[in-house]
Amino acid sequence: MPYKSRVASVYLLGFFIDLVNMFMASVAFPEIGQSLHACVGTVAWVANAYTLGLTLVIPASAWLAGRYGDKAIFVASLGIFSLAATGAGFAGSIEALIAWRLLQGLGGGLLIPVGQAMTYRLYPQAERARLSVIVMACALLAPALSPLLGGVIVDGLGWHWVFWLNIPLALFALVLAVLWLQPGERSASDRPDVIGIGLVSLSLALLLTGLSRFERAGDPAMGAALVVGGLAAGLLLLRHVRRSKHPVLDFRVLRDPLLRAAMLVYLFVPGVFTGVSLLNMFFLQNALGLRAVDAGALMIPYALAAAAGMALAGRLFKRIGPRALLLPATIVHATGIALLATVGGPGDSQRMLAAFLLMGAGGGICSSVAQTLALLNVAPAWMHRASAVWNLNRQLSFCLGVALASLLLGQLLIQHHLTGLAGARGSAALTLVFHLCFLVASLCSLVPLFVIWRLDDGHRRLLAKPSTSR
Question: Which residues cross the membrane (predicted)?
Answer without folding.
Answer: 45-65, 72-92, 98-119, 131-149, 161-182, 194-214, 220-238, 258-283, 295-313, 325-346, 352-376, 396-414, 426-453
